[in-house]
Amino acid sequence: MIPARGFAAYDARAPLAPYSFERRDPGPNDVQIQILFCGVCHSDLHAARGEWGEVPRPLVPGHEIVGRVTAVGSHVTRFREGDMAGVGCMVDSCQRCPSCAQGLEQYCETGFVGTYMGVEVETGRPTNGGYSDKIVVKEHFVLRIPDNLDPAGAAPLLCAGITTYSPLRHWRVGPGQRVGIVGLGGLGHMGVKLARAMGAEVVVFTTSPDKVADAKRLGAHQAVISRDPAAMAAEAGRFDFILNTVAAPHDLDPFLLALKRDGTMTLVGVPSSPHPSPGIANLIFRRRSLAGSLIGGIAETQEMLDFCGEHGLTADIEMIPMAAIDTAYDRMIRGDVKYRFVIDLATL
Ligand code: NAP
Ligand code: ZN
Q1: How far, in Å, is the centroid of ligand 2 from the Cα of 287?
Q2: pLDDT per position in the chain (348 positions), as tens?
Q3: Ligand 1 atom at minimal distance to the Cα of residue 333
Q4: Does the pTM of the predicted model rise above 0.90?
Q5: Which residue from 45, 63, 41 is spatially nearest to 127, judged by alpha carbons?
Q6: Which pairing describes strands 113-114 and 90-92: parallel, antiparallel, or unpaired?
């Protein structure tokens, strides 16, 4: 085993604190990575602070990992020592079920192994995420980071990027469509950049009037204050697709009403308690759909990274030292993130 260091949530209320643990020795199919940067996803906060119920503790969160390859197993073909590499939300899956066979490891029928909150197949021990100095991951789950992208800005692509790219692709967002992005946080701001790069007309729905100018700078054609009933009413029936990234329970009806006939709103936020049920008539009378989507498969994650490489897209980040993680969480709860915190692991 290899000694590793990180920051862990020991319980739901205490601040994260230093933690020493072990990574497995790299096997023939493994890649060992020295972690340089790790994005801070709202999922880290939900998990660390017990908002999703019990989790294995001490919990080392972090699933937006970018770092330098320091060792590879003898069967590894796509990576060499010194390469820049990424790891997202998954580190393993069964690799045999129909979902895995179709490259949809996130929907693995026996459940994918999370980068944290999972159980490592090789050792039977809990997995630990990217708030740490190193990680050992099966080659299949390691991503190539395009050379032209800033590694710190690329880290959030591993979750925020793919979680927005996958539904935008699945629901075939492109030119001629009017697309709404609800919530301008980590996921939302990547949703804006990606939907714009795909050629759609992009509208941000935000609760924060001070984010309107940023929404436009990030690529939105328009921003609507979602707490303004008149502004919402003016958008009724105008959207082909809406991606809702909000991390808290809220009224879905104003957004469903904004859909055209046959429009879809896809939820990616995972609040700690459910949204109130939407009005069913809002679905029925316009044949609208309410859907959900989970991250994206490994091949699609590579496709997204390459797309970002071609279009020069990275996250807008605020770099933080490891010790500032709890302050970052508190700001995230207030919606005060512009637009992704990224931990500089040199400060660990
Ligand atoms: P984030 O950076 O905190 O952004 C969430 C945004 O939602 C906020 O910036 C805010 O935007 C808006 N918001 C927050 N509270 C709100 C409220 N009470 N009412 C209305 N709007 C509110 O979070 P994130 O990292 O983007 O993650 C968003 C959610 O997606 C989390 O629940 C996370 O767990 C989940 N997630 C899901 C997947 C998946 O695979 N499905 C993957 C990753 C994350 P405005 O200020 O613009 O209103
Ligand atoms: Zn995430």
Answers
A1: 31
A2: 999 999 999 999 999 999 999 999 999 999 999 999 999 999 999 999 999 999 999 999 999 999 999 999 999 999 999 999 999 999 999 999 999 999 999 999 999 999 999 999 999 999 999 999 999 999 999 999 999 999 999 999 999 999 999 999 999 999 999 999 999 999 999 999 999 999 999 999 999 999 999 999 999 999 999 999 999 999 999 999 999 999 999 999 999 999 999 999 999 999 999 999 999 999 999 999 999 999 999 999 999 999 999 999 999 999 999 999 999 999 999 989 999 999 999 999
A3: 3
A4: yes
A5: 63
A6: antiparallel
> Which atom of ligand 1 is least distant from the CA of 106?
40
Q: Which residues pair with 23 in a beta bridge?
A: 2
Q: 165 preceded by cis ω (within 30°)?
A: no
Give the CA angle between residues 7, 10, 12 to the nearest 5°. Answer: 115
| Best CA proximity match to 181, nearest among 166, 162, 164 | 164
Whether ligand 1 lies within 6 angstroms of the CB of 187 is answered as: yes
Which residue's C-alpha comes closest to atom 18 of ligand 1? 248
Distance from Cα 46 to the centre of ligand 2, integer Å: 10
The two three-digit tokens of residue 30, written as one number: 């493994």
Residue nearest to atom 13 of ligand 1 (CA): 246
Per this entry, what is the length of the chain? Answer: 348
